[in-house]
Amino acid sequence: MKRILIIFTVFAFLFSCKEDKTSQIQNKKAKNIILMIADGMGVTQLYAAMSISEKPLHIEKFKVAGLQKTYSASDYITDSGAAGTAIATGVKTKNQSIGIDTAGNAVKTILEYAEEYKLATGLVSTSSILHATPASFIAHEQHRKNYENIARDFLDVDIDLFIGGGRKQFVQREDGLNLLDSLKQRNYNIVDGIENLDTGNNGKYAVFTAEGHNPEILNGRGDMLPQSTQKAIEILSKNENGFFLMVEGSQIDWGGHDNDIDYVITETIDFDNAVAKALEFAKADGETLLIVTSDHETGGLTIVEGDMKTKTIKTHFSTEHHTSVMVPVFAYGPGAEEFGGIYENTDIFEKMMNAFGFKK
Ligand code: MG
Ligand code: ZN
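Structure tokens for the assembled complex are given below, as produced in the milestone run.
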């Protein structure tokens, strides 16, 4: 009798373990994904900002870190078009391409899948919203510089919110169209400036923060990125099916091209402040997967001297262009552990699809 009881207990235990495992797997599904891309930020840009910052960066709080390989289908060193497309669609393509494969066919993006699954979607950027990184999530163009076409592509997707520069290509166009009128017809609130965004309105949002690109932090951009991130989350999280949001810190890359370390560091810290807003939401929400990564490193930055006490560093750039090195990935929330290790930039798309439970 005793023996039978023991056997029964063991079975009951095994059964309960099995049940726990199933529920854990179910819990891994993410209702929301916030993907944050720091354009041009390698490990050195991040460590430079960490070294001079008085307090630890928010990115240092992540428990899961990985590395992604950034090469494109055409080049050992990627541009932001091919890298953005890889992350957004899971397909390696040629440099300069946006949302298309090497044969020129449009490839569906994670944002378009999210739309199909009735999630709310959004894009936020400190450059023009038509620039390569955000464009890769919504447009399908042979060349990243086809800005007027990219603006028109925004009308083909039912995106719920976008915040960034690039107003000019919606109104002063060679084809004479006024795309702001088209947006209005499609029930968009058109807002100039993030400070004028009232998150309580109905409908979709097109928020223009500049005619072209936004200014750099050192030139008065203020807290546009953290504020936009917070407001975007506030709006998109109203959708009960969940949301997909991509947030880009665009100008770490430009600081790298300029070989300007102050530019790089101030933009990295600003990006980190936006990460703080997303992390705060993800922690309180519990159903949000937050991924923080980059598309490539810019400038071949090295730190050749430093002092932790005085918070000073001496740096050196080896190029004015992008480099090939792997870039970091940090993740928090349901499915975060999938982002540990070394993998292709295209795997980020696959991991997001799995986390959402989307089928191709
Ligand atoms: Mg970019
Ligand atoms: Zn660049």
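The CA atoms of residues 102 and 186 lie 32 Å apart. Residues 30-356 form a domain with the Alkaline Phosphatase, subunit A fold (CATH 3.40.720.10). Further analysis is deferred to the final report.
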